[in-house]
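Just curious. Protein, please.
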Amino acid sequence: MSWILGIILLSVLVFVHEMGHLLAGLAVGIKAEAFSIGFGPIIFRRKIKDIDFRLSIIPFGGYCKFKGEIPEEIEEDNGEIKKYKELEDDDFLNISPLRRIIIYFAGPFFNYLFAFILLIILVSIPSTVELYSPTVSVFRDGKYMHTKQGITLAYEYGIESGDTITAINGIKTESDNDILKTINEETIQKGASEIIFTLDRNGESVNIAIPSVEILKALSGERALGLYFGDNLIIKNIVSGSAAEEAELKIGDKIIVINGISANNIADFRPIVMDNYSQKINITIIRNGEEIIREAIPKPVNSKTIGTYGSLGVEFESVPMKIEKVDGVSFPKSILEAFKESGYYISSYINGLKLLFTGKLSLRENLGGPVRIIQISSQVISVSAEYRLKTILSFTATISLILFLMNLLPLPVVDGGMIIFSFIELIMRKPLDRKVLIKIQTIGAAFLITLAIFITINDITQLFK
């Protein structure tokens, strides 16, 4: 069901984009012949004011086709193309370049406008933020965090469980929120060459520098950062039929030792449990002030991402350092805040594109298309009800801003490329040669189709990893 909702969310964004083209066309006096959400075979259609509205079976995009947008070829009897059909006054290619620029730009602009409205709503909603202590637990391998397998960044560079992060690049940090926010700003916004973690380690100040390119890999999901905030091993919930229930563990028990090894935090707990599926382990707990030892056999769980691992079937208490109330921003101040937020998203994405195309980030790991958008959408929609609305608003605004930017790239076929061609015609005061334009568009379309196939295959490959 969540996947269906993800497809609907993507379709809404496509609808917004194509509606921008349609309304702009109507505003400048050009007739639209077809308006489609999706490609391929049509599953539903209705004609409204001579516009053929369609819903097609492949939900990975859409189009708004205007009259005379594609030149019609006239053939001689021998099959050779002699010329293109004479354009009529109300044909798309016969209207002024300026009017075409307006139509091309309107699609991406509507995506920006839609995101802007969502951000206004988002910043207006009051919320609470759980702030956790800047003292960290460090996982040695990403698989224990159910993320990318391999040595984590924090472990590789020497950050240890129990360290308290007091500053990032000299900026004071007092909570997990401060740390994550500062890391993002320093790497993505400011482009710092390295991130210096200032740590309090048993009363001693320690500085650890990590190259920003490695931090960016962690932020993009190429590898695991390895930091976890919160070190409470008090059982909050026990899954019915789990290994914990069979071992007679109870809610409120505090785990302190596993297999003779002190368990001070989640990074101590998970590796032993996950690596010992179907194997007996000894767990020392504190219950009502008394130490008790229980034997448990973690049950095997199969994962496409990290393979088979053991599960005890417990959920630990998550006790924040404090809960901060964030008031919603009142209108009209929310407009300014939404503008700032959209600017932050756009600059972050542009910086991300630079890193992709300079090879600092992996294209395979970070380049995503409709399949990945739908997959992430389904995950976003599945978050707990408490955070669902804000998460959906934030994610939808982000994707809409990405569509705004991607469609303005100066590539043939996409809106940005067509704006450039129209602008050239505006400067030259004469239309471009139709044959040359069609060849450029054909090459561009072939490139985009190839890229789309690559991205889709990559999305599906990542999905089933």
